[in-house]
Amino acid sequence: MSLHRMLRQRQEAGKPLRVGVIGAGKFGTMFLAQARRTPGIHLVGLADLSVPRAREALARTGWPAERTEARSLDDAVKTGGTHVGADVDALIGHPEIEIIVEVTGNPTAAVSHALKAFAAGKHVVNVTVEADAFCGPLLARRAEEAGVVYSLAYGDQPALICDLVDWARTAGFDVVSAGRGHKWLPHFAASTPDTVWKYYGLTEEQARLGGLNPQMFNSFLDGSKPAIESTAVCNATGLLPPPDGLEYPPCSLDDLPFVCRPKSEGGQLHFKGQVEVLSSLERDGRQIPHHIRWGVFVVFEGDSDYVRRCFAEYGLITDPESRYGALYKRWHLIGLELGISVASVGLRREPTGCPDGFRADAIAAAKRDLKPGEILDGEGGYTVVGKLMSAKDSLAIGAFPLGLAHKVKVVNPVKAGTALRWSDVQVDDTLEAVRIRREMEALFRNPSRRAAE
Hints:
Strand content: 15-25%
Largest sheet: 6 strands, parallel
Strand order of the largest sheet: 3-2-1-4-5-6
Number of strands: 15
CATH topology of the largest domain: Rossmann fold
CATH superfamily of the largest domain: NAD(P)-binding Rossmann-like Domain
Helix content: 25-40%
Number of domains: 3
Radius of gyration: 22 Å
Distance between the termini: 36 Å
């Protein structure tokens, strides 16, 4: 049965999915725009540190004022309205709310919110993929222990990639590669909030008028966000990262099966079963026609002459031998598609992507030479950049995860381009996110312990 039909049945029965949303930024606001129109979903509460911002987000997305004036969460449940407030714990703990949608973008806060939700018996749709990248495998384990579902967010690229990979495997294909597009040139890795708009092609005035956050946008540009999202994909699908991080080969849509095949066969992959991010720019800066900058893809293999003939008969994009074919989604709609996760989790108890192992890691590398005493400023800033690394290599060198590299003091000199290690920084071991990450590392460093548990 389709999710939409199931939602309508819940609506008609007077039992809509009751949802609490934490965070009213861009992604959260995009979800609000569609949640208002989706039968079978009741937004019981919206929590944000800035209540005026949350109310403005509801108004901007067309919510009638009378639907957002519930005096309490209890009142919202009784009237079918929505309560707006700043009390996250009350939202998570309310007994009538079934699903928590975490949209803060703050990885340490997201970990705390997810763990509290699991303890309260709530499913979690985690939009804050930064949190998933540094401890998602343990969050998934905690959710399973609590008998609830932990899910990546449909509309964001990792969940869409997981969906394509699942389609290919369910149809009986071996997945050769999957990933997303990106606007990339090698020098973007050193970009800072001071240079981001130049590389994006915007003036500072245009960015200011658009209310665009330079550090957030720079986290996409400098490769940090692609590393984070590729980590989530690897840990949820079993695909593996390239040996030395993402390489961003230039690629058009028509060239997907050419580029995303092994190097031994003329492609750019180190091996089959690899994640990769494709650049929409040639290395000389020229834009590639029909690029996949905003989209996602999967490349799969036809293992017989018959299947390869079928590829050709139905016009599939393939390599010259018709051995490798590709499917893609050229755009993603971010929060506008998030309701698919909410429905899948609430109605089918199925995540739209969920880590089932620790295969990859998004670690912090020095963006420039760092000196003792400096304070790290997180992804997209001036001090560190994200790098995709295998979990095995990360554990071996004691690499410091990107998700924790914010407001942390450097204690050893670190050369530009070098991975930071736990020993290079001073962390507060009492922080919940730090403890969770250390617990996950210990768990996956000792396979025998994991098997015994």
